Amino acid sequence: MIKNYLMTPGPTPIPEDILLSMAKPIIHHRTKDFKNMFAETISLSKKVFQTTNDIVLFSSSGTGAMEASVSNILDAKDSAIFINAGKFGERWGQIIKAFDANPIEIKYEYGDYAKPDDIKKELDKNPNIKAVFMQASETSTGVYHPIDEIGKMIKENYPEVIFVVDGITAIGAIDVKTDDFGIDIMITGSQKALMLPPGLSLLSVSEKAKKTIKNNKNRRYYFDILGELNADAGHFTPAITIIEGLNLSLKRILNEGLENVFKRHALLALSVQEAAKAINLELFAKRPANSLTAIKSPNNINSGDIINLMKSYGVSVSNGQGSMKGKIIRIAHLGYFDKPDMLMTISALEMALKKLDANSNFSGGIKKAMEILS
Amino acid sequence: MIKNYLMTPGPTPIPEDILLSMAKPIIHHRTKDFKNMFAETISLSKKVFQTTNDIVLFSSSGTGAMEASVSNILDAKDSAIFINAGKFGERWGQIIKAFDANPIEIKYEYGDYAKPDDIKKELDKNPNIKAVFMQASETSTGVYHPIDEIGKMIKENYPEVIFVVDGITAIGAIDVKTDDFGIDIMITGSQKALMLPPGLSLLSVSEKAKKTIKNNKNRRYYFDILGELNADAGHFTPAITIIEGLNLSLKRILNEGLENVFKRHALLALSVQEAAKAINLELFAKRPANSLTAIKSPNNINSGDIINLMKSYGVSVSNGQGSMKGKIIRIAHLGYFDKPDMLMTISALEMALKKLDANSNFSGGIKKAMEILS
After folding, report:
1. What is the least distance, in Å, from the CA of B58 to any CA of chain A?
2. Is the ipTM value over 0.85, yes or no?
3. Which positions in chain A touch B23 (Cβ < 8 Å)?
4. CA distance readout (Å), B103 to A222, B76, B106
5. How far apart are CA B308 and CA B294, in angstroms?
6. Chain B residues with beta carbon closer than 8 angstroms to that of A241
7. What is the reported pTM?
8. Nearest CA in chain A to B75
9. Residue ranges covered by each domain of chain A
10. CA torsion sign, B20 to A41 to B169 to B366?
11. Does domain A16-256 have CATH number 3.40.50.300?
12. For the segment B56-92, what is each residue's pLDDT rounded down to a tens digit?
């Protein structure tokens, strides 16, 4: 008998009460009951986003909300900076190009993080830049970018520039303060720290961004932000069941307390990071996120071999993506995760490394983790 | 105690086994298990679409797949015909415009259906027309358009024209033969006859359409048909749970047998249509679909009053949309519906009409329905 432990950075495990609540008979979305629940859900999500801005929901993966932020903010030929420090940063460039705007890339080696000064230089060079697009945490590398400093720098020096942040593996896991950080558009998806199935994305939009959107004529229909804001509980048939799950998951997060949720994520992240170091492994991220930990595979071992061995104990972690494939493993701790999840994962990692003769300090990792978590 | 009976044309009731299957712990989409299930699901969906063409899935409402068919087929300034015979026909025009193409409207009074000759005239007038966009059944009026005749006319006379059909309330309910009818792109959504929650759309694409798409540079990213076809089980994180539900629902449909499914829908539709006539009500659709029945409200009674009274017995049916609001009621029989559903709905309708002194032939409708269904 092997149980399945999903330790991947999306999809992440879904609490049992939420799974069962989504198994209730479906209700119609043009009813008072649904509209009330929808309005409550939006209001709860603002608390988790730490914003007073409007929030819209799209029935799509997180990439849909990324596209919405591009096609609603940028007109054809508009210039925008995007930070490419991983697969999801790269995606910004693809979307900006697809909508005939002009992407200005600031590229970092994978594992590295964005520096405010690099962005400032580019903004000074080109006064026509309309927006900056970046990730909060780059899911492909485990990096957390200093979006607080970058937001402050933009707000103080370039008040016209729209700051767009993909917080898909940050919202609900890391203390990202949408309004305090000066983020005009903040994005997340359902299948990460919100502990839901994939299929729903959320996007907050500032008044400043709304003004820009009103004057923007780029081609869009399904991902029309103002159309969605003006609709009564969904312009098109919304993902009813996932929204019902979202209502519950937001209540779970707020009942635990935002601060406690962030502390829990920080503690779990620390246990994995320190355990890795204790068994002579290197972290891949120069500035690790609290939502997932990317670890370099040691001694030229293909990380796929480690992952397969861990899987033989039932523990699923993720490989690297693109050029990072085979070189790193990524362990999630965003969403519905607790201390035993980390203990079990670290132990499975150590057992895999032993089988591969990785010359790690066997049992040093789990010892360290137990110290941190007790 | 009042139970809830959802008799609306989307969302529709979800079978209990499918609801529970979607409440299982989530699995990762980049695994062999998921990929195998995904491939099987695509292959099953081809049978239900009656096509050998490729099928792609989008995590979106049906409107997302409608947008995909426009942004992938039409370049800016391309001309295309769309049939406007209701709210969803109108939507084609909005999407074509949003993607900077040139919509040529063929408009019918609501309740009326499209005539092949009208389309032929327009195609003869303008040899540059690249595509024809229409509904199979127009959900807002209950009309079933003669897509078989229209498809034949296009195939025989204008072999270059791409024929796009929104089958959102047809696939799995009405015998629409995608390939035989010459339909290049056929679209459906999850929350109709496929008996699933909203959040997933399906789109079949012919080789002819693929050639057009390859040469088309309109702006798109999330709804990129070829990108989705080339991806291994979803370009972006797919709506994993709904796809698992889809696998089950397609098996349910194919186990019942496509022909039996269509016969069941035809019989249920007939019972509602004939019951309505037996109590002196008029059908709104000049060519009624087997997926839903739209009935005119009698004697200047606001249809909302009928709907509210039916709701007091727990039976939810739909009002008209836009200019049809207050004038019609729409009763669904697409998907997870059987004879008792119809009996109960017709009875609730009769009880509501009696309370409103509608001078209907009280109990004549249910009598007729019982005759037809026994």
Report:
1. 8
2. yes
3. 19-20, 22-23
4. 18, 11, 10
5. 16
6. 22, 197, 199
7. 0.97
8. A219
9. 5-11+258-373, 16-256
10. positive
11. no
12. 999 999 999 999 999 999 999 999 999 999 999 999 9
